[in-house]
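Reference record:
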Amino acid sequence: MYEQYLIIGSAIAIALVITIIILHFVKKAENKYYKNKIKDLEIQRNMIASTPVLVELSKVESITKNNDLMEEKCNKWQDRFIHIKEKRLSNVDDMLIELDTFLEDKDYKNCGARIAKVELEIYKIREAANKLLGEVREVSTSENKFRENVTKLKSRYRAVNQAFKYHLDSYGDLAEAVELQLENIENRFVDFEMVMERTDYGEAVKIVSVLTTMIDHIEIVVRELPDIMRLANKSLPDTMNEIEENYNELIEEKYSLDYLNIEYNLKESKKNIDIIMSNVKKLNLENAKADLEGILSFFQSLFVDFEKERLSKKVYLDELAPFEEKLNKVNTQVTSVFESLDKLKGTYNLREQDINDIEDANKLLVVINDDYRKMTLKDSNRVAPYTLLYEELESLTNRLDEMDDNFNITLKSLGNMYDDEERAKEQLVEIEEFLEKSKKNIYSYKLPVITEEYFIQLEESNDSIKEVRKELDKKPIEIRTLNTRVDTARDLVLKLYNTTNEMIKMAKMAEASIVYGNRYRSFYKEVDRGLKTAEDKFFSGNYKLAFDTTIKSLQLVDKNIKDKLKDIYSE
C-alpha cells in the first residue's frame, strides 16, 4: 500500500515539474515575441525619420529661385516635415517607451493592445511622409521628367514631319493646312523651353499635354489623309461614274432597278462626301476614312447587284419557255380530268380521296395560273427586277412540279381503274374461249359417260362469267369487286378445262390399256377378270379406276407393263 502511494506521489511531482518547465518556456517565448515586435516598430519609426524629404527639398530650393509661388510651397513642405518628425514621431517614441515598461512588468495583455495602436499610428505617419516625399519629388524631378517626355515627342514630331514631306504630293490642296499644324507644334516646343527657363512647371505640364494631343492628332492626319484624298478625289468619283454608266445601260435594256435607289444614293453620297471633306479640310479626320470606305464598299456591292440582275434575266428567260410549256400541258390534263369528273364518278366507284385530289389540283392550278399571269404582267410592265422575277418563277416551277406529281398519282389511280376494266373485258373473252375449248374437247372423244363433276364445274364457270358481265354492266363499276369476279371466273374455267383434259386423257389411257391387255385374256383368268372389272368401271365413267385396275391386272403378267404402255399413251 505504501509503495502505491509513493508511486502516485512521484508521478504528481514529475507532472508539476514538467508543467512548471512548460510554463517557463511559454512565458519566455511570449516575452521574446513582444520584444521582436517592439524592435520592428522601432525600425519602422527610424525609417520614417530618415525619409529624404529634406534632401529633395534642397534640390527644389536650388531650382525654384526667384519663384515666389514655389518658395511658398517649399516652406509649407518643410513645416509639414517638421510636424511629422518633431510632433508625431515624438508621440510614437513615448508609446514605445510605454511598451518597454509593459514588457518589463510582463503585462503582455496591455502590451499587445498598445502594439496595435503603435502600428496604426506608424502606418498613418508613414503614409503622410510618403505623400509629402511624392509631392516634393514631383517638383525635384520635374525638369528631367518633362525634358524626357518632350525629347520623345520631338522624335515623334520629326518622324511625322519627314513622312509628310516624303509624300507631300499625296496631300493635295490640304498640304498647306498640314504644314500650318506642324508649325504650331514647333511653336509649342519653343513655348516649352521658355516656361522651363522660368521653372514654371505648372505651365510646363499643360504644354506637354497639349503637345502630346497635337502630335497624336498630326500622326493620324499624316497617316490617313493620303488615303482619304485618294478615296475622295479618285476612287469614289471613278466608281460612282462607272455605277451611273452601268445603271443607264441597264435602264436602256429595260431592267427594273428601282429597288436599288441608284439615283438617290448617288445624290446623297455626293452630299456626304462633301460634308466629310469639309471637316477634313479643317483636319478633323474623325471617322472620315471609315465613312468614305463605307461609301465605296456600298457602291462596289452594286456591281454585284448588277451582275445578279443580268444573270437572273438570262436564267429567267431560259426557264420561262419550258415552264410555260409544262403549265399548258398540265392545264390541259387537269382541265380534261376535272371536266370529266362527273362522268368518271358515274363510270367508276371513285374514292373520296381521289375526288378531293382532283378538285384540289384544279384549285392549285388556278392559283398557279393567276400567279403566273401576275408575274408576266410585272415583266411586261418592267416593274420588278429580274432577281425577283426569277425567284417567283422558281417558286412557281416548284409548286407546279409538286402539284403535277400529286396529280399524276391520282391519274395513275384512275388509269388503273380503266386498265382494270379493259383487262377484265379482255380476260372475259379469253375465259369464254377456254370454256368453249373445254366444251369442244369433251365431245371430241366419244366418251361412254361424262361425269357429274364436269357438269357441276361447267355450271359454276357459266355462273362466274355471268357475274363478270354483271359487274361490267354496273354503273359505277366497283373495280375491286370486278377484279375479284374476273379472278374467280378465270380460276373456275381453268379448273373445268383441266378437268376436261384429265378426263379425256384417263379415258384414252384406260381404253388403250384394256385393248392391250386383251391378248392375255385367253391365257390368264385373273387378267380376264380384272379386265372385265376395268371395262365395267370404264363404261360407268370411272376412267381413272378403270386404268388403275387394268394396270394392276396386267402387272400379274408383266411387272414392267407401265413402261411398255408409254408408247401407247404417247400416241
Remarks:
- The mean pLDDT is 76.
- Residues 145-241+248-281 form one domain.
- The chain has four domains: 25-140, 145-241+248-281, 312-423, 445-570.
- The CA atoms of residues 89 and 520 lie 163 Å apart.
